[in-house]
Amino acid sequence: MLASGQFVENAYYLATGTGFFIPAESTIWTFRVVRMNEGSGEWWAYAVDAANHYALLPSGQEGYLVLPKSVVPRGFVPFDTETWIGATWRPITRVDL
């Protein structure tokens, strides 16, 4: 049931949100937004799925971080990307549905 709910929420944001995207490593079925940005845009700041943590980088750094859950470092704080030791930077790519 959770995956179904994620699909509906993600489909809504993809259809209506400015700047919302799902990372290439995830899917519309499993991507779960934990924290949306605090501004007026409709995009995520921190999200997870079964395999990874995702953090959108600040404006001007066009990309996001991916940190596998299997290698979370000691002292990891989800909302502090300075603790994301071993994370990989990825460029933002948008896929049309």
Describe the structure in your own words:
By secondary structure, the protein is α+β, with helices and mostly antiparallel strands. The chain has one domain (2-90). Helix content is 15%, strand content 24%. The protein has 1 helix and 5 strands. A 5-stranded antiparallel beta sheet has the order 1-2-3-4-5, with no helix packed on it. It starts with a helix and ends in a 7-residue tail after the last strand. The mean pLDDT is 88.
Mean pLDDT: 88
Helix content: 10-25%
Side by side, the strands of the main sheet go 1-2-3-4-5
State the low-pLDDT regions, or none.
Answer: none
Strand content: 15-25%
Described by strand count, sense and barrel closure, the largest sheet is: 5 strands, antiparallel
Instruction: Indicate how many domains the architecture comprises.
Output: 1
Distance between the termini: 22 Å
Q: Tell me the overall shape.
A: globular
Task: From the alpha carbons, calculate the radius of gyration and give it in angstroms.
Answer: 13 Å
**Count of alpha and pi helical runs:** 1
Order of helices and strands: HEEEEE
Structural class: alpha+beta
How many β-strands, per DSSP? 5
